[in-house]
Predict the 3D structure of the following.
Amino acid sequence: MTRTVWYPGHMARGLRKLRELSEKLDLLVEVRDARAPALTGSPFSEQVARFRPVWIVLSKTDLAVEEATERWLSFFRGQGVRAWALDLRKGNLEPLLRAAARLRPSHRELRLAVIGIPNVGKSQLLNGIIGKSTAPVGGIPGITRGVSWYKGKGFLVVDSPGIVDPRSHREVHRRLAWLGSSKSDVIGGYEDLAEGLVRFLGGSSMLERALSSWGMERLDETPSDTLRRIGVRLGCLVKGGEVNMDLAGKRLIEAFSTGRIGRFTLEEPGDSRPWEDEP
Ligand SMILES: Nc1nc2c(ncn2[C@@H]2O[C@H](COP(=O)(O)OP(=O)(O)OP(=O)(O)O)[C@@H](O)[C@H]2O)c(=O)[nH]1
Ligand SMILES: [Mg+2]
């Protein structure tokens, strides 16, 4: 059963191109979101990991819970994977670049590709590696549409489009949409997505934190009622004073994905995925 709802043509083409290129590459740097390092894993890296090193960069550490990021780094390193955790807007790429330079063949530049799912910061990392803001960066998934080479000092770097796994469960896509890495509007709409997020956050103290950032309290109510209150608070109203639930949902998802309501980490190493047992 195909369960993916967002897999546009540029992803299929990008995957094909990466496969063709993979013979020429010395190193793959896979960017994952530090807020969900398992859910944001790339479907491509597993297919080629046997042939060359795949290093992991956990991006957006400024939006994740610091201690959780440390646990993820230990987890990956414990598996023998080289991993870095970075706020890519700040850079601090020197240790990564020094390690990569050691893989450089004596007769030519090092060829590396930056890969990963949409909106995790691949192009931002690439710009840091080449030292110029050349590759387009943007806050919505699907900014990079093709596979392109860029030249840096001693490096040839490939930027690639974000590619999701066409076999992923719908629930994975819902969670990726909370982070801004999947298209929210094609996965059941913002209202449904945001209610799912409220339900998830309600399982811990995260909901209190989110609500208090808007000066609101947690009440004993359904996720739908919580979303309605958020809509009132943010002025997402239509004629007659009714709440526009889809707009309220969009605002909540945007605030969550961009870190406006605080730092969050959605998963810990070894977490189970209960939805995978569902028929
Ligand atoms: N807060 C924060 N934002 C980041 C970080 N890295 C990237 N971003 C932001 O995340 C968004 C996506 O960055 P891109 O580099 O375009 O992501 P991408 O993986 O190339 O995305 P696609 O090309 O759409 O697949 C942009 O708004 C960046 O400014 C980070 O470490 N912290
Ligand atoms: Mg990009």
User: Anything to note?
Assistant: The radius of gyration is 20 Å.
